[in-house]
């Protein structure tokens, strides 16, 4: 049983301290702002979801997205809206990627716990005015016109939704997206997870669910327990 230790206002275990020391050391060695932000986020927020959002499958999926986006859209996708952005890891992966010149990322999630954690995860970019997180339901947002609109005045060149498998009313969301909108979508066939209410069995089924006028990329990636699918294109 690990011994509890007081750290600031929180009780942590010796094991927590063990891993934190290693992460701190590695952050100093690499000089990585991303690692520094992750450390600050896990120090301030005792949220197990952070560990899931940063696991190797999640990071691999985000890096796959970044590589494909760069290949088919280029280094300057403009202003980016991420739907179901969770802990803000995708925003951090894109904004820390030196291959991109992204103006700004806004990450929205229906879960009110996510916004402060996502902003801690992106503290470097919050300070620069390049990242913001909001609590909102993507099914209720107004995307009207071209490009997408998040709040009536905000416009976005690219809308990313890597949480398609979580959307019970996917068709209702899809109908809200204006024709011509540039999109990146991910889904998967991981039916075993209770929150995955909209999995697809294969890439063709995903393409039928989200029919695009112009498909720039369609691919799949085998993970250990499931297959992840990705589409990039214009609705
Ligand atoms: C587990 S996470 C992300 C999984 C995804 N594969 C990824 O890494 O991007 C799914 C997120 O979608 C959010 N979500 C589900 N329905 C939503 C909705 N209607 N509007 C906004 N966020 C939603 C959840 O709160 C959750 O944070």
The dominant shape is globular
Strand pairing plus helix content: what structural class?
Answer: alpha/beta
- In CATH, the architecture of the largest domain is 3-Layer(aba) Sandwich
The count of β-strands is 11
CATH-assigned fold name of the largest domain: Rossmann fold
Please give a structural write-up.
The protein has 235 residues and is α/β, with parallel strands linked by helices. The protein has two domains: 4-51; 56-234, Rossmann fold. The chain is built from nine helices and eleven strands. The strands form three sheets. A seven-stranded mixed beta sheet has the order 5-4-3-8-9-11-10, with helices on both faces. A two-stranded antiparallel ribbon has the order 1-2. The protein has a two-stranded antiparallel sheet with strand order 6-7. Helix 1 (14-30) runs antiparallel to helix 2 (33-44) and helix 2 runs antiparallel to helix 6. The longest helix is centred in the N-terminal third of the chain and has 17 residues, at 14-30. The protein starts with a strand and ends with a strand. The mean pLDDT is 91. It binds S-adenosylmethionine. S-adenosylmethionine binds next to strand 4. S-adenosylmethionine is lined by residues 58, 83-84, 86, 108-111, 114, 137-139, 162-163, 166-167.
Keywords:
globular; single chain; Rossmann fold; 11 strands; alpha/beta; 2 domains; 235 residues; 7-stranded mixed beta sheet; binds S-adenosylmethionine; two-stranded antiparallel sheet
């Amino acid at each position: 049983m690990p011994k509890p230790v007081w750290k600031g206002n929180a009780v942590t275990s010796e094991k927590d301290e063990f891993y934190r020391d290693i992460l701190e050391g590695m952050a100093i060695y690499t000089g990585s702002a991303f690692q520094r932000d992750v450390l600050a986020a896990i120090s301030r927020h005792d949220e197990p979801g952070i560990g899931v959002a940063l696991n190797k499958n999640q990071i691999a999926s985000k890096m796959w997205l970044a590589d494909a986006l760069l290949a088919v859209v280029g280094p300057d996708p403009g202003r980016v809206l991420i739907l179901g952005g969770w802990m803000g890891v995708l925003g951090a992966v894109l904004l820390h990627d030196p291959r991109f010149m992204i103006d700004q990322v806004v990450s929205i999630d229906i879960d009110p716990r996510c916004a402060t954690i996502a902003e801690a995860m992106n503290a470097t970019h919050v300070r620069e005015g390049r990242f913001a997180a909001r609590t909102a339901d993507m099914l209720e947002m107004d995307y009207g016109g071209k490009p997408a609109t998040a709040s009536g005045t905000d416009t976005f060149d690219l809308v990313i939704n890597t949480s398609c498998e979580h959307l019970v009313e996917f068709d209702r969301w899809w109908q809200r997206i204006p024709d011509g909108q540039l999109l990146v979508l991910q889904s998967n066939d991981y039916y075993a997870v209770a929150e995955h209410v909209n999995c697809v069995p294969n890439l063709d089924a995903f393409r039928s669910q989200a029919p695009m006028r112009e498909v720039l990329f369609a691919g799949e990636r085998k993970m250990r327990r499931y297959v992840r699918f990705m589409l990039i294109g214009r609705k």
